[in-house]
Amino acid sequence: GPGKCPVKRDQPHKLDSSTSSHTVAAVSSTSVSSAQMSDLHRSVLLQCYVELKSSVNVEDHVLDYLYSNFVISKSLRDRIRSDCTTAESKAGMLLDELPSCGASAFREFVDALIASKTSVHQKLAKKLMDMVKNDQQSP
Question: Considering the entire predicted model, what is its pTM?
């Protein structure tokens, strides 16, 4: 009878809210944050891509640091470890994913390099920060 109509009208809303939350979860599978990395940070990473890829040892503190600070997901960390055999390919995969890991991903990556206490990582962290600083000062 007519009593069933309101129930039917109510259903789609319930479905909508559950579908939208699933969509959000699917989109943010690699990163924990939904915000994007700034163009400046993205371009600095790209400019240093070759050097970073060949010099960064992600197993030296970097992956675990980023994971523990919610920059990368457990699945991304595990995928980097399982899919990549060389240090260079691990760094490359991390660098490819980093821009989609949130607005603070660049800063956290620099902090991870500093925290690893390796001199090569220290130099790279300083270089990245200097490039950002210089770029912000330019008109």
Answer: 0.73
